[in-house]
Design goal:
The protein is mainly beta. Helices cover 3% and strands 53% of the residues.
Length: 418
């Protein structure tokens, strides 16, 4: 038991908290006795420490939409209503309305103090930023970091698979996960061609940044599990300047290798530039084993320190969304926000968004198209739209996690006077 006693001029009071073993595990009985002159007052309440006992916990509603499928393995609670309008199979107890659970509260400043990176303003994790390892042909890896974003954090899987190992992300302005192919105004609008052992890749980009862009550097990536190179880059602006060759070997450029352009072409706002990557070559034997029609080439352009990304693919083809794998660090949740929403879109299967640990929004909505998680989801509102595979796994849910308070339901309140 825990006891606090305080003496005042006309009396004193004592507060005692102890496990209510007569009721069950995780129940606490709190008693307060106050004495003043010849009068006393006793207040007793029983609380249930339940903030981290559920696979899904919502302070309002939980909605499995009409298009949702998959399975949910664990107990679910909503303070209002649980709606399963789709084809989700639920294994576990479903409660709604009672008890009314007070949300756990996150101490954001404490997380900011332990962050390895505090990023001011909005930030996009897209597999090409300074925190990432891009040595894998198709996957960018973030490792052993704590990211605190003072604005909105976006995880963009449009151009590469992203993996977070032993990381967690806290964002004051919420977290968005998507598979958008364009970033910062450069759009893919043209065609790509790669169907021989040695070939030129031709594509177009449109400048939608609101001003002219002067290119200084470029890199081209590919998801081939083999060595490949290209030898030169040329560029012309439709209705404008034909700059010809803007970079050439030696040496040849490899996967995601940043090259410095020998000419710095200017693309006016709204203009379309045609770019040719020449003499892209690889082994004929390897080529025969891969469907080149589905090859995607993530391309990064630099205008000094500013970078833009897009992805090149065969004309008429839609980009294949990248996958997201998120493995939490030690006892901490994976995604945390206090007032913002956590939203996900662009996925096809639950395997495209693979998490362990806790996804948490104290005051916002948690909404996923697809999700695979071993852990739990806590939000003010929870929504699922497509394929899900959810499993409550205590190993990944510390009760409570560091820097969280609350997460209780008040079950009984008594007051006695003497």
């Amino acid at each position: 038991p825990w006891t606090l006693t305080e003496t005042m001029t006309d009396g004193y009071y004592a507060v005692t908290a102890a496990e209510a073993v007569d009721i069950g595990d995780d129940y606490v009985r709190i008693s307060s006795i106050g004495y003043c002159n010849n009068a006393s007052r006793i207040t007793e309440l029983v609380v249930y420490l339940c903030g981290w006992k559920y696979l899904l916990l919502s302070m309002s509603d939980i909605n499995f939409s009409v298009t949702s499928t998959g399975k949910s393995d664990g107990d679910i609670h909503a303070n209002t209503v649980v709606s399963n309008d789709g084809g989700v199979t639920i294994h576990g107890t479903v409660t709604q309305g009672t008890p009314q659970i007070v949300s756990p509260a996150v101490l954001m400043e404490e997380y900011k103090n332990i962050a390895t990176h505090v990023i001011n303003g909005d930030y996009v994790f897209n597999g090409f930023d300074s925190f990432v390892d891009t040595s894998s042909p198709a996957t960018s890896t973030y490792s052993d970091e704590i990211y605190y974003v003072t604005g909105k954090a976006t995880i963009n899987c449009g151009m590469r698979n992203l993996e977070f190992w032993r990381c967690f992300l806290i964002a004051e302005g919420g977290i968005e996960i998507n598979s958008t192919v364009t970033d910062s105004g450069v759009d893919y609008v043209g065609l790509s061609r790669l169907d021989k052992t040695q070939e030129n890749v031709i594509f177009q980009i449109k400048n939608n940044t609101g001003g002219p862009v002067t290119l200084t550097n470029m890199s081209v990536g590919w998801d081939l599990e083999t060595t490949a190179y290209y030898e030169s880059i040329s560029l012309s602006v439709s209705g404008g300047t034909n700059y010809g060759t803007i970079w050439t070997y030696p040496p040849r450029a490899g996967n995601n290798e940043k090259v410095t352009l020998t000419k710095q072409p200017v693309i006016p706002d709204g203009a379309v530039a045609t770019i040719q990557i020449s003499n892209f070559s690889k082994s004929a034997t390897k080529l025969q084993k891969q469907n080149m029609d589905t090859l995607q080439l993530p391309v990064t352009f630099w205008a000094g320190a500013k970078s833009y990304q897009t992805v090149v693919l065969k004309a008429g083809e839609l980009p294949i969304p990248g996958k997201l794998l998120f493995r939490k660090q030690a006892q901490y949740p994976s995604l945390i926000t206090k007032y913002g929403d956590i939203t996900e879109s662009g996925s096809i299967s639950s395997k495209d968004r693979d998490f362990d640990g806790i996804i948490f929004s104290e005051r916002g909505t948690v909404s996923f198209d697809c999700l695979k998680i071993e852990g739990c989801v806590v939000g003010n509102r929870i929504q699922f739209n497509k394929d899900i595979d959810l499993r409550y796994t205590p190993h990944y849910v510390l009760d409570p996690p560091p820097f969280f308070i609350g997460g209780i339901a008040i079950l009984e309140w008594k007051e006695l006077y003497y």
